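Record type: monomer structure entry
Structure origin: computed from sequence
Chain ID: A
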Amino acid sequence: MTNSPYNPVLLYVTDPMCAWCYGFTHVIRRLRALWHGRLTVEVVAGGLHPFAREPISREQRERLAVNWHRVQERTSLPFNYNLFLREDFVYDTEPACRALHVVRRLRPALTLEILRAMHSAFYADGLNLADPQVLAHAVRPFGIQENLFYTLFEAEEIIDATEKEFEFVEMLGVTNLPSVYMEGGMGPELLTSGFCQLDELEERLLQHLEMA
């Protein structure tokens, strides 16, 4: 790792219910550990499928299953496919993204770790993160009491902040999750769009720093 002129700030645009983000969060955590004290990662809720109201169709379940298999093959992470057996499953990612805002308010230093736990709850354990009770249970090991979680989760301020963040992500021009941007003098600059391995991500980071 070369010396950088400043400590870069990375915006990690993600979603707790995004399969490729499930794999990429491990990459981001390793990068942050490798650059310990020299890098800041800010988690941004991208909103993969916010405000969905109808259960996913059979065709959608089949497409998702294929995509999950691809992520599993690329990352070797565990996947639980039991959700696809439920015909009433609504793939609404807004509640999970809203929970990230609660987490950032209460445990900002642990946001990336809690995101990892939320990924695991959905993909490895087969729990539905659209359910507030599941979300409250997922964050409880990190010292967030359920009553406090529910209070903030239902607060208008958090609901509005979640929607505004979706608008911010749209304004950035994000077309793929996960995506990583680096804060620069002219605003956020795209570092990578979509999943990549640690060596590729670090190489792109170093290239951006050399041009800074």
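Annotation 1: Residues 56 and 90 are 6 Å apart (CA to CA).
Annotation 2: The beta strands are 9-14, 40-45, 179-184, 187-193.
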